[in-house]
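Re: weekly structure request thread

Next one in the queue (339 aa):
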Amino acid sequence: MKRFKLGMLVGIIATCFLAVGFMAPNAVSAKMTFVTIGTGGVTGVYYPTGGAISKIVNKKSKVYHLKVTVESTGGSVFNVNAVMAGDLEFGIVQSDRQYQAVHGLKDWKDKGPQKDLRSICSFHPESVVLVAGDDTGIKTFKDIKGHHINIGNPGSGQRGNAIDAMTACGIDWKKDIKAEGLKAVESAKMLQDGRIDAFFYTVGHPNGSIKEATAGKRKVHFVPIEGACIDKLVAKWPYYAKAVIPIKFYTSASNKSDVPTFGVKATFVTSSKVSEKIVYAITKEIFDNLETFKKLHPAFGILTKKNMLEGLSAPLHPGAIKYFKEAGLLKYVDKALLK
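Done, posted below.
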């Protein structure tokens, strides 16, 4: 009897080991990996861009065993630094900030070139917007002198663009204006409440915060950012280009036609330390489902597979290169990005 019980016990243990042996490969392969995309303020276009990526990729989470989450952040500089530190796996970053990080300029002057930064693709164009109250007398860009202006929080793209534009046009932002350093999401209410005269915002269109700013009781308008000084700025830096603010999205503004300005592109970045498998999966799902992606926000309407490979400065991640090679898209890639 004892031998029978002992035999049963040995059999049960052996069966358990066999079961574990058969289950182990599936258990390991089913392990879910979580990655996070750093975006920007919730009223901007970066946040819904991250949401659009996660929505598309997460539909195949069981295929890739990958879950993408989105985090609202302080913007481009924060995203680059967080990706480099390993606190975020991906970030959406203005094309100028990507260039500056790669070359160790501006916010990275002391840190030096961010050699582990890798690009994946670019998204929508972003124009530098200057919204001012009609009652301020600010009609041209140089009229901002002596006024109370929100140039954006430290680490944000619009702050860098605003300072670039002012410096190019002979405006000392520390002396010639009263500069605020608030997040873009706070600007609309501040303008409508009369606590600032104008604000800068670099963003894709349409934008909820700018709609809020133009739809209040205080009449406001877009100030053209143009002239010889802006022409020189655009000619000097490869990440800047002429742009317009499409007035059709902001019918409550005082302007009657599109407003000239300059702008950048939103780009998608990661680190060389993020696995090729993960970057390949995300790149593939974005490009293979581009038509679906474009429907997730009006700012994506002009995207093509070709123009999504423009405006990049950091070397492409191997995972992105693998997909572009398979999809026949390497012909659109700057060869300097393949190093």
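The chain has twelve helices and ten strands. The domain at 31-125+266-338 is CATH 3.40.190.10 (D-Maltodextrin-Binding Protein; domain 2).
Next request, please.
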